[in-house]
Specification:
Strand content: 35-45%
Shape: extended
Helix content: 10-25%
Pfam families: Cu_amine_oxidN1 (PF07833), Gmad2 (PF10648)
Keywords: Signal
Number of helices: 2
CATH topology of the domain at 74-195: Immunoglobulin-like
Signal peptide: 1-25
Oligomer: single chain
Domain Copper amine oxidase-like N-terminal: 42-92
Order of helices and strands: HEEEEEHEEEEEEEEE
Largest sheet: 4 strands, antiparallel
CATH superfamily of the domain at 74-195: Immunoglobulins
Number of strands: 14
Organism: Cohnella lupini
CATH class of the domain at 74-195: Mainly Beta
Strand order of the largest sheet: 11-10-13-14
Length: 197
C-alpha cells in the first residue's frame, strides 16, 4: 500500500512538473547581448563609451539613443509629462499650441533663455520648471497684450546648481490659469536639459 501511495504521489508531482515547465519557459525570455568589437562612426565621429557600450542582438546593433542623438546634433529628452522619449533636430519646428507658439529654449547648467509668443487671457502667462519629480519654481509673466493678440516673450530662468537633477530632465511648462475655474490650461511642455549620472 505504501509503495502504491508513493507511486501515485510521484506520478502527480511528475505530471505537475511536466505541465509547469513549458509555462515557466514561456514566461522567462532571455536575450543574448554581446558587446561588439567594431566601431560606430557618425558623420566622421566615432562613438566610444566604456560605461554604455555598443551591443549586438541577433545581428542588430544597439547603441544608446542619446549618444546617437548627440552625434547627429539632435536633442534626445525624456518627457516626464507624456512618459515618452522625444528626439528633436535643428530642422524640427519649435514647440507650440493654441496659447504659445515659436517657443525655443537654449542654455545649460541651470541657466536658460526661452523665447516665443503667447496669446493668453488678460496678458498673464505662467511658467514652471520641474525635474520629473518636483516643481523647482513657478512664476507669472506679463505679456504686452492679451488674447486674441500674440505677444513676444523672453524668459530668463536660473535654477541653483544644488537643485539640478543628477539624473533626469528639466522641463519648462508654459500655461495659463482658467478664468472659469482656476485650473491650468493650454499647457506646453518644453525640455530644457537632460542630466545623466
Amino acid at each position: 500500500m505504501r509503495k502504491y501511495r508513493q507511486f501515485v504521489i510521484g506520478l502527480l508531482v511528475g505530471g505537475a512538473l511536466m505541465f509547469a515547465m513549458p509555462s515557466m519557459a514561456a514566461v522567462v525570455k532571455q536575450y543574448a547581448l554581446t558587446e561588439v568589437g567594431y566601431p560606430i562612426e557618425v558623420n566622421g565621429t566615432s562613438y566610444v563609451n566604456s560605461q554604455l557600450p555598443i551591443l549586438n542582438y541577433q545581428s542588430n546593433t544597439y547603441i544608446p539613443l542619446r549618444a546617437v542623438g548627440n552625434l547627429l546634433g539632435a536633442n534626445v529628452n525624456w518627457n516626464s509629462v507624456l512618459k515618452r522619449v522625444e528626439i528633436r533636430n535643428g530642422e524640427e519646428q519649435s514647440a507650440q499650441n493654441n496659447a504659445f507658439r515659436n517657443v525655443r529654449a537654449s542654455g545649460t547648467a541651470g541657466h536658460y533663455t526661452v523665447t516665443g509668443e503667447g496669446r493668453v487671457f488678460e496678458a498673464t502667462m505662467n511658467y514652471a520648471v520641474e525635474d520629473g519629480h518636483d516643481y523647482l519654481l513657478e512664476k507669472s509673466y506679463a505679456l504686452d497684450e492679451g488674447a486674441p493678440a500674440w505677444s513676444e516673450f523672453t524668459l530668463n530662468i536660473s535654477i541653483p546648481h544644488k537643485q539640478l537633477p543628477i539624473n533626469g530632465t528639466l522641463t519648462l511648462e508654459l500655461f495659463e490659469y482658467s478664468a472659469k475655474d482656476g485650473t491650468r490650461i493650454n499647457t506646453l511642455s518644453v525640455p530644457l536639459e537632460t542630466f545623466l549620472p
